[in-house]
Amino acid sequence: MVNAYCNPVRCYVGAGSLEMLPEILSSLHARKVLALIWSPEISALPVFRGLDEDGRFSLSCVLFACSNPTVEQIFELYAKTKQFEPDVVIGVGGGTIMDAAKSLCALRGLELKSAGDLRDAIEKKRFCRVKTPWIGIPTTAGTGSEVTRWATVWDPSLSKKRSIDCEDNYARAAIADPRLTAKLPLPLAVSSALDALCHAVESCWAKASNPVSRALALSAVRKITGNMEALTSGDPKAREAMSEASLTAGLAFSSTRTTACHSISYPLTMRYHIPHGVAVSLLLGPVCELNYELIPERAALLDALGMQTPEEISAWTGRMLARAGTPARLRDYGARQEDLEALAPLCITKGRADNNPAALTDAGILQILRKIY
């Protein structure tokens, strides 16, 4: 099978890269700038104060402090920002903010009067050609969303995870400045790093895997596992490494997408509110065992992980979560063993499950859920 690699995002990586923002905006001929921010502290950063004072730009900062954005929340944001008509949208935050920025750019030009209209547009892929560029500036090191083209929108009322996916909705630029991750609480820093690890590992075995994506993925895996102990010990250099590795993992899975770990994780997050990075990391070991014989370059993957067998992954993940004070079993989040059989069919997500090298069945998923219970 021949799979192609392509990613058009211009990446700025390293401490101080945030200072490139005015130059990037100028290159896009942007005047009206909409910044979606996770925290009010962002608008107080010197670079954003400078934009506000710079006569070339008209800056509007909008706080969007939601986790796992729902159809209703994205519609509210769309309605709130519609009249501003920005030349560029900047997303500054974690995966939620990136999803929100991408969603606004994809929905621009549609006339939506309700959350139901938005849900209908997503289902029918009724998106206009994206005309408004966006810039991704992560404040976590895990999602890699700044270099992917799709946005996740949750629909808990219908127990669905939806995706806004437009081929031309890649960011014009991604800025991974590790200084923005310095204040992340340890549990979030660890779960974010484990999310990035899952992106990279799943990219290695995805059906759409290719030599370029695997090279990027293995580099990210090696950097993440090599710095996890230091991250849990509070080493600031480990945060720098995770910032770079998260973006590298994003570049890997931007062309391959994810697989069974993500597919199975979605209902766990929706039903039990398990943080996304935790949910996918709990599944990494069992899914690796399932896929192992079908993984391209599996010896190289284990070497990058620093492990001898796939069975070691679950124990290692559990230790990392324990060091962050994070529960690592489904039962710790209120799941009941008698719920698992009914939960298993909900764990097959189109575009993720069918990208997994080993076939996913209800019985197989149930076995995996029992392993992490």
Task: Looking at this protein, list some descriptive labels.
373 residues; alpha/beta; Rossmann fold; Dehydroquinate synthase-like, alpha domain; two-stranded antiparallel ribbon; 15 helices
Fold topology:
Layout: E1 10-13, H1 21-27, E2 32-37, H2 40-43, H3 46-53, E3 58-63, H4 71-81, E4 88-93, H5 95-107, H6 115-123, E5 134-138, E6 150-155, E7 160-165, E8 173-176, H7 186-205, H8 211-232, H9 236-256, H10 260-272, H11 276-291, H12 298-305, H13 312-323, H14 340-343, H15 362-372
Parallel strand pairs: 1-8, 2-3, 2-4, 4-5, 5-8
Antiparallel strand pairs: 6-7
Helix pairs in contact: 4-6, 7-8, 7-9, 7-11, 8-9, 8-12, 10-11, 11-13, 11-15
